[in-house]
Here is the input.
Amino acid sequence: MAEDLPPPNASPPHAAGAACGTCVFNNAAQLRALGVDVSGHEHVVALAGNPNTGKSTVFNALTGLRQHVGNWPGKTVAGAEGGFGYRQRRYKLVDLPGTYSLLSDSQDEDVARDFLLFGQPDVTVVVVDATRLQRNLNLVLQILQITGRVVIALNLIDEAHRHGLTLDQRHLARELGVPVVPMAARSHQGLDRLLEAIEQVALGTVATRARRVRHGDDRTERAVSELAARLRREHPGLANPRWIALRLLEGDPDIERAVTDGTLHRLSSPTPHAVSSETTGT
Here is the structure.
């Protein structure tokens, strides 16, 4: 279960040293610009998912009363953030707007996409409805294009069983390349396993190889690969050049702006504290 938060000045265990993933120290300024104060926390966890998947229930189960609600900077979209402790580490949990995609057709999608891309959370928990898995996988695959530091919370597993549905979470984890945790958030079933998976991804103690969608058209794939290679040369620390290349080819104005205003350069510049354990495939 989630624990009471350790005091802000508590020293984390030694094991959190060289394997702390991206760590909040690396991008604290960018997170503040997105309206998230990460002071006193070792890791940032984003919570994403379609509407009506039980995402808010997962958020409440993890944070209890240690949360607050407000609007995202410059948006009319409400957001919530809170904190929880697990094995003497402090985690900031950011509840992203429920959305069906990251294709920037609404403010909700803008907020979720920008946080995952520019906030670079240490872990992204994607809550999916076990009774509507096929519908939810669209968002999962889009998120895996941006980051491989993902845990799938296979929620409402009790409802799936009630409807006679059987899900092979091990096969799903192999196909997606990230941990999959069956759970029923309303009864806290699976919460301990979710916390353990979050810790493993945050610390880099579990290797993830996120499934990345490839285009069947050779010309499109060649264009994506060439542009991604150029982005990688110009921004060697960039975590997701392929996804950015895809969005640039599709004419995404926000991603174009990030290239021209230097945001991508800032994100890809190494910092004195930077430690990476990213092992996802491309």
In short: DSSP finds eleven helices and seven strands in the chain. Residues 6-22, 270-282 have pLDDT under 50 and may be disordered. Residues 218-234 form the longest helix (17 residues). Residues 71 and 78 are 4 Å apart (CA to CA).
